[in-house]
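Mods, move this if it's the wrong board.
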Amino acid sequence: MKKKINVILIIVVIALWGGIGYRFLSNYFFTPDQPVLSTNFDSNTDIDNIFVQRDTFVMEPIKRDPFLNKIKSDSKSILVRNNSTNNTVKPKQVVTHSSTEIKTYWPKIEYYGYIKSGDNKELVLLNINGFVKKMHVGENGSGVTVNKISRDSIEVSFNKENKVIIRHSRLN
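Not the wrong board. C-alpha cells:
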C-alpha cells in the first residue's frame, strides 16, 4: 500500500514540474498563438504625416512639503498687459509658493514615563507613531527632540515648534 502512494505522489510531482517546465519553455521555443501586432509603414509614408495622440492633463502645484510635513499655499492675482494694438489689460491668476506655513503635522507622541539614574541622567520612554523609543534630553528621534523632562510631562520640539506632552496613564 505504501508503495502505491509513493508511485502516485511521484507521478503528481512529475506532472506539476512538467507543467511548470512547459510554461517556461513555451515562451522561448514555441510560436505564439496570437500574432504580434506591428505597425508597418510603406516606404512612401511621410513621417511628418503620422499623428500621435497625446494624453493631456493639468499638473497642479504641490501644496504639501513631504520633508517638513507642512502645507504651503499662497495665490496672488496680478495684471498682465497684452502686447496687442488696443493695449487691453487682463487679470491673470498666478499661484506662487511662499514660506507661509499653514499647518504642521505632528507625529503621534505618547509619554510613558522616565528613569532617573544615579548620575542625574534622565531617560524617557516615548511612543512615536507606534515605535517605542528611549531618549535623553536633547536627543532627536524621528524628527522629535526632547527639550525638558518632568515627572508628569515633557517638552518636545518638532520642525522648530514646541509642544508639551502629558504622561500617558493606563487605567487597565
